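Structure request: Metal dependent phosphohydrolase, Fimbriimonas ginsengisoli Gsoil 348.
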Amino acid sequence: MRWYARELGADEEAWGNAGLLHDFDYEQHPDEHPLWGMALLREQGWPQDVIDAIAAHYAAKTGVHPTTPIQRYLFACDELSGFITAVTYVRPSKSVHEVEVKSVTKKLKTPSFAAGVNRDDVQSGAELIGLSVDEHVANCLKAMQADADKLGLSGVQ
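Returned structure:
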């Protein structure tokens, strides 16, 4: 999210926070996600655009569809970033630096791989931001490779 914010001249802090916080409540409140988290963030005074982006990443539950850039990009990055992480974890090196666009797109065509990832959301997310899946994968890879150490995706030593 921060990478796309920089590319688009958007608020990197807000976009980064939306990306970081959008699923924070899922483990402890899966049935109430993201409503529980949104309520807590609202109570704590988080900016409304961050809360709205979190709502839009799960429109089926919240009824908020992604319309603003932060909302569209969060939706687009959500499933794909998790999928790229899964592709990284199955590599012997566990390094995102060795993941290529073609590796990700090939795995996307294998329904049994990371079966919990909604492939339709990956496709519609890319369309929502006006990119092909390959272009979006390439961008997300660049972003994740740039922050591989922070993400724990630099590989085994």
